[in-house]
Amino acid sequence: PGLPNRCLCRQTAEEAIELATRSGAPLALLFLDLDRFKYVNDTQGHEAGDQLLQEIAARLRACVRASDLVGRLGGDEFLVLLREVARPEDAALVARKIIDAIGQPIELASGDAQVGCSIGIALLGDGNSDLESLLRSADTAMYAAKDAGRNTYQFYNSSFYERVQRRVTLEQERRQALAHDEFQLAF
Known about the structure:
By secondary structure, this protein is of the alpha+beta class. Helix content is 52%, strand content 21%.
């Protein structure tokens, strides 16, 4: 969709993070996941899905400055790296702008489509010192945004991570209990 491939995107993001770390400049990473993209693929076909992704990429680029990075991670996941955000609130303003832009109907050859997105935001610092930790934190915050009702954004905080860890642990314990026939019906 006219965006840097995954490898170039990662390389550019790592360079931006290294530069921001050295200079002390603020930086925010937004992790976006499209809502209802699978529905477009399933009902209008993969060609329509590809066309939709191209339009989403164009809308994302229109929402950020030329110095910011927009990349597609794969499937219906994108990242936006905001360089030199003066305040965390500025990252939130960009996230709201993106949500509004993506939420507008998209005209496709096979008919109109409408999707939304959930966005997780992680800031450089706050325990995030490299691309992997920023991606992990923003991804966790994105799932919190989905849990909050989709078409919204959330900033990362450690309680989200703890909640995700509890959910994973509970799921593992439930599977183990099923495998060992440890459930009993009580009424």
